[in-house]
Amino acid sequence: MIHIVFEPSGAEVLKKSITLDESLDGEILVIKDDFAAGPVANIYDAEGFQARKAWWQSVLEFSPYTDQLDIVDDKMTVHQLKKKLEETEENVWIWMGQNPHDVCGYYWLISQLADYQGKIQVIYLNNLPFINEIGGIFYPQYLHEIQPKEFLKAKRLARPVTLSEFELDPDEWRKICREDEMVRILEGGKKIASKDVSFFDKDILDALGEKTVKLPRLLSSLLPKMSIKTGDAFLVWRIRELVNAGRILCDGSWEKGWKDIALKDTKGELFVEMDEEISE
């Protein structure tokens, strides 16, 4: 058995669940890219691949994640997966949480696995209740939110990817790629909607408020409140774009990292009291 997840944190929880149930034992592969953001036009061609790689390089610049450009290794991961499916009788279980990151990753992946129909199963935790650490019922969006022992319940949801899905899901992904917007959100089920690059701007500007704020503090207050989430690296890239456009004022050196950056909405007062506000 080969398990596929779309975030390292999901892989860690799955590893713990395997220690509780040997029937789940198998290799765990992680698709690292977040296909819910960034350019996806001609994603399987060299030109589209290089455009996406260049975009990720600009996103990760100055971030704490500059060593994580190995998301481009996803192509090799799929190549090796196909080879195993051709040479062995292994089955694949694709685990998806109800979020655009996982669903877009699924679309990108399943569009490359049509030759292996019958060997591919999917577990989509769509609107399903689970028990949290204090015994309450909740509806997880991400795999890492689920307790390892709850994965034993989730495994019963595994089902084969149907022939119809192998036909329709790649068509849906091709449509999304042709739209080539910079943001993709989940509207329910597996319905992905393409949105403009400015989609999260209101969240960013609302979180800035009236005072100057350090970038790490802004992110810590912004991310938990977002009803539709994206990665912090994407948000900071968008903040930099808003700075360049004059919509946000910025003080500090990006070369020194996120911790050195202070920001302010241009609707507020200018940086007259910058040093004093930062020290508060």
From TrEMBL:
Q: Which residues form the DUF1835 domain?
A: 2-123
Q: Which residues form the DUF3658 domain?
A: 157-253
Superkingdom assignment? Bacteria
Q: Which Pfam families match?
A: DUF1835, DUF3658
Under the heading InterPro entries, the entry gives: DUF1835, DUF3658
Can you say what this protein is called?
DUF1835 domain-containing protein
